[in-house]
Amino acid sequence: MQNEPSQTPRLDAWSRYFARMLDVLVFSLLVGIVAAVAGTLAAPEATDEVIAVMDSSRLWTMVADLASFVIALPLIAMSLVLGQTPGKWLFGIRVRGPQGDKLRLSSALHRELLVWARGLALGLPLLSFVTLVMSYARLTEDGATAWDRRVGSQVSHVERTPAWWLKAVPAATFVVALILWNAFAGLFVSA
């Protein structure tokens, strides 16, 4: 059984980062699979052409990554409304509304848009690094991120038990491996 999050806020920026990246990866992958299957069923030749263009250009791959992330935003928000996202569950993070209740859909969507814009700088590689550092500084100094303050959400974390570590370490390793693979895959693939 999952430990209940503690009522005292604990600043845990790295858990939040890994949970966010895992959610982005999971939901973007789901969007990509659905798009590929739908495209193959509806227009196989056009889908093959799109995949060929993406394979030939790193720029188009980045555009597709950004598009799938934008499409995944509502899915992440819906997961928050229902309770937790996969990443937040693995890292024992719970996001609640101002009174400790589940987030409303409008608040969850607003929060996700703010995370995307202010926390991840719309996914732009160098700029997102800067905004992540700024968000980390704000969280450690003020105890909350700009998006949580804006929508009034409360973030809590479970205790770090051995069971937490057994879930969190492999999940964080998976996220790091995928980020590195995505960053360096183009260097090692022959054209």
From TrEMBL:
Pfam families: RDD
Superkingdom of this protein's organism: Bacteria
Keyword Ion transport: no
Domain RDD: start-end pairs: 13-148
InterPro entries: Pra-immunoreactive, RDD
Any coiled-coil regions, as ranges: none
Major location category of this protein: membrane
Lineage, top ranks: Bacteria, Pseudomonadati, Pseudomonadota, Gammaproteobacteria, Lysobacterales
Annotated localization: Cell membrane
Organism listed in the record: Novilysobacter selenitireducens
Keyword field contains Cell membrane: yes
Name of the protein in question: RDD family protein
Protein keywords: Cell membrane, Membrane, Transmembrane, Transmembrane helix
Lipid bilayer topology: Multi-pass membrane protein
Membrane-spanning residues: 21-42, 62-82, 113-137, 168-189
